[in-house]
Write a structure and sequence with these properties.
Elements (H helix, E strand, L loop, with lengths): L16 H7 L7 E6 L2 E6 L2 H14 L5 H5 L4
Antiparallel strand pairs: 1-2
Length: 74
């Protein structure tokens, strides 16, 4: 699925309705936003993602920043 949108003067981007519906996105859902090369990547964060990453970090004995914790989810 491909759709277009624009960046507002405030830097905001509207996710097209077709995309929101296809992914089940709702107001308030957390999204990861990152960069891969010259591509902006957005990914919905689920409770399962948070638990899995936290358990993995605990297993490794690591205390990480949010950025470090979730970079592998993108």
């Amino acid at each position: 699925m491909v759709d277009t949108t624009r960046i507002s003067t405030k830097g905001q981007v509207v996710i097209p309705k077709r995309v929101r519906e296809a992914l089940g996105l709702k107001p308030g859902d957390p999204l990861l936003v990152g960069i891969k090369g010259d591509v902006i990547v957005m990914r919905k964060v689920t409770l399962n993602d948070l638990v899995a990453e936290s358990l993995e970090n605990h297993r490794r004995g690591k205390t990480l920043s949010h950025e470090e914790t979730f970079k592998d989810l993108l």
